[in-house]
Design brief:
Length: about 130
């Protein structure tokens, strides 16, 4: 991928600078979605062409991997790569910021409190969930 600059924030935005990519990572990370249809059925109702393109880009950028579903060889399943899992602290910070500045966010209060007060254990628990 061509870099726009050497700025670290710009670099992250080169990978996940659109809302759809972040929402795909969110669904894989927090909601246990793995198939195209599961990802498409998120509240935001992403168009199939956008979802296809973003999954392809996330895979090319090594944030997501695609495998054949062992239970149905016609389907593909998507999982976070180690590089994708490294986005977890960033996603948590975004959730904390949103819950602080938008009282109507649907982030569970206990989850946000844990993200603030028990961050390392929460990260460990979430990452362990992806290992199973």
């Amino acid at each position: 991928m061509a870099r726009r600059s050497d700025c670290p924030i710009s670099n992250v935005l080169d990978f996940v600078g659109d809302k759809w990519s972040l929402l795909i990572l969110r669904d894989l990370m927090f909601f246990g979605k793995h198939s195209f249809s599961e990802l498409q059925n998120s509240d935001e109702k992403m168009a199939t062409n956008i979802l296809s393109k973003r999954l392809e880009t996330l895979e090319q950028d090594d944030l997501v991997s695609k495998q054949t579903d062992p239970s149905d060889k016609r389907k593909k399943v998507y999982t976070l790569t180690p590089k994708g899992k490294d986005m977890l602290p960033i996603m948590l910070e975004m959730m904390i910021w949103s819950s602080k500045h938008d009282p109507n966010t649907n982030a569970p209060k206990l989850f946000i409190e844990r993200a603030i007060n028990d961050r390392e254990n929460l990260i460990s628990d979430l990452l362990n969930k992806h290992e199973n």
